[in-house]
Amino acid sequence: MSVYAMLHKEYALPKFSFRLLVMALLLVLLPNVAFLSAAYFTNTARPLLNLDYFWAALLFVLPWRFAKFTGLLLFWLAALFDTLMMVMQLFPFMDLLGAIYLAPFIMKAPFLYQALTVFLLGYLFLIPMFLGKIAGKTNIYHVLYVCVPLFVAAYFTGHLQYHHRSNVAILFGGNNFYYAKSQYALYRENQDFDFLKAADNEPVLLEESRERASLRLSKPTAKKILFIVNESWGQPKNSKLQDAVLEKIYAEKSLFSQVETGYFRAIGATVEGELRELCGFGGARGFSFRRTPAEKFSKCMPNILQKQGYKTIALHGASGQLYDRYAWYPKAGFNKIQTAEYMMGKPTCEAFGGVCDRVLYDEVKQGFRQNDKLFFYWLTLSTHADYSEKDLYNQRLKCEDFQLPSDTLLCRNFRLQAQFFDGLAALLKQPEMKGAEVIVVGDHSPPVINIGEVFKYLEEGDVAWLHLKVKE
């Protein structure tokens, strides 16, 4: 057809069909409905409409294979960032790089992590099949009839919110109750993508953390130090619940010359909690610590104490491969490392298939028996989310007595914490522990699948700490 003919041809809009419009509307809204339902059950924030799915919908209805394949890729990308914006609220230390790094460990991860992964993979493969069938029952024109008005409305209302949560939940997308917004754009507002360019290169260690429990160690330094970074130990709003968790410790107060407790804000992955306490770093961007030069760890506490004649021991029930602990622990100054690889045959628990904390008290006692000048570091494991009932053998703590429902994940967390501190109280009565200075501090606040539990029962984003000195 000549240009003249094209310019003089009469064009008409395609015939409007209510049925095709309904199919187009379903094509655009179905992914949003699925994620809004998940947000409702987890009490997380999400825009009513994620604009990222509109581009996938427009491509799904085009008749070309390349367009449909591109639409599938855009759908997967949109779903990825939709998922991340939800996960970052439930697990504030998680981001895209963290998810990529932890992916190889998923088969050993706790059940909660595995279940979420299976659900996401099922969603990514099944939903596009439904969308493909729906796309075949409408056309590009009717999808445009839906998308264009919604895009225009989003342009004028994208800054408005249908709900506002005025607390720390503003962090990590926790207050993203927009009418219509791109989840990808919201992720960019919360996270810096630059570090992804060097995801497997040397991590960036952030400036000094001003608040950390290790600053409370005595000066001059005690000859025997037990330093514990306690997995997922947070601070409940009901302080009496924390008192109940520490009940067995308080019951032995005659053994101690000093006992103090408190809490402070600390958000980050477990390894960032370790780096905060052992080395003073305020966090990390990237987790390939095997690539970090040894000099970056020169000011870490174990290195300093080792030069002063201390034996330095690190104990952790999981594999040393996780977060490259096999590589950075020696660089930080530990001259003996006990991870799962070196404790074959010991009973294992649910969290990452690691050695149970309940059998490691003897390892601690042996370390203090054999060394007169010792820095013993223990990263606990059994209190890791999803707080497995199978690892709980101590039923002492009754959550209902402190207005915490027994069917919540936080109840399981605090019961596991009570179990740990009961074991620690028994350990500190042993003669080998005389004269030891002890610090226990949380790595991060306990994550749960329903963030509503956090808002209701926890001091959000805070970790608890305990500092005591065993009498000579």
Automatic annotation (TrEMBL):
Sorted alphabetically, the keyword list is:
Cell membrane, Membrane, Transmembrane, Transmembrane helix
Q: Which Gene3D superfamilies match?
A: Alkaline Phosphatase, subunit A
Instruction: Give the record's membrane topology.
Output: Multi-pass membrane protein
Domain of life (superkingdom): Bacteria
An example of a Gene Ontology cellular component annotation for this protein is: plasma membrane
Q: What is its main location?
A: membrane
Location relative to the cell: Cell membrane
> What is this protein's name?
Uncharacterized protein
The species is Neisseria chenwenguii
